[in-house]
């Protein structure tokens, strides 16, 4: 489910992998699992490539 709003495919959301720190600014983190989070299409689009908010919970961060 979306780590920002909680939407899921069950609610009709399209899921995206988001780069917390944008690839444009941090290309070296493009494939770093600690820089990835799951967001729905709407939240990912709204976040854009300027917002570096990490929506993962502390538990999700420790699983990376």
Q: Mean of residue pLDDT?
A: 92
The unreliable regions are none
Assembly state? single chain
Count, helices: 2
Element pattern in H and E: EEHH
- DSSP strand count: 2
Radius of gyration: 11 Å
* Form type: globular
Describe this structure in words.
By secondary structure, the chain is an alpha+beta fold. Helix content is 20%, strand content 16%. The chain has helices at residues 41-47, 58-63; strands at 15-19, 36-40. A two-stranded antiparallel ribbon has the order 1-2. It starts with 14 loop residues before the first strand and ends with a helix. The mean pLDDT is 92.
Reconstruct the topology from this structure.
Layout: E1 15-19, E2 36-40, H1 41-47, H2 58-63
Question: What keyword list fits this structure?
Answer:
globular; alpha+beta; 64 residues
Summarize the structure.
By secondary structure, the protein is α+β, with helices and mostly antiparallel strands. Helices cover 20% and strands 16% of the residues.
């Amino acid at each position: 489910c979306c780590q920002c709003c909680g939407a899921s495919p069950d609610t009709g959301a399209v899921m995206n992998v988001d780069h917390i720190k944008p690839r444009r600014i941090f290309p070296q983190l493009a494939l770093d699992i600690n820089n990835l989070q799951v967001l729905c299409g709407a939240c990912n689009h709204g976040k854009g490539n300027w917002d570096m908010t990490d929506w993962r919970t502390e538990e999700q961060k420790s699983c990376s």
